[in-house]
Amino acid sequence: MSSFYSREELVHMAVRVEKSAEGFYRAGARSFEELKTTFEHLAADEARHAQIYQGLLTGRASTYTSAEREAANRRVRGLVSVGLLDRLGAGTQLVKEAKDRTQLLEAAAGLEKDTILFYYAVLDLLEADDRSVVYKIIDSEHNHLAEVTSLLK
After folding, report:
1. Is the pLDDT of residue 79 over 70?
2. How far is CA 98 from CA 19, 28, 73, 135, in A?
3. Residue 127's closest CA among 61, 31, 29, 46?
4. How many domains does the chain have?
């Protein structure tokens, strides 16, 4: 039998993802004046998402069967094994590596896409109440992706 990520571990991962994204956008706002307003707005959204995830830490137990939890955990472990969480945690480093506005916006788009991918994998490990909250955050992340990619044009 393999070990499962607990609900609390997953929520803590999500909080770290959001805080890293907030740091990315705040650093990007400082580094690229022309993106300051947009990036400050996105940073505020990411900070709000982290607070929402913090609010999910209520300790409710999962009602999923062992087989359901194993399938969902396999997806999350797969993402972790290919470095997705490492990339999502590299927020401010991505800003330092960006040589220009386009590279920064491409990094932001990648960050948003990876965040969406991670949250979809996590959904199956959460109860219905939590999933409805995460779906709203995923929708917001999709909006961030659209906003960032519109600036690339």
Report:
1. yes
2. 19, 9, 33, 30
3. 61
4. 1
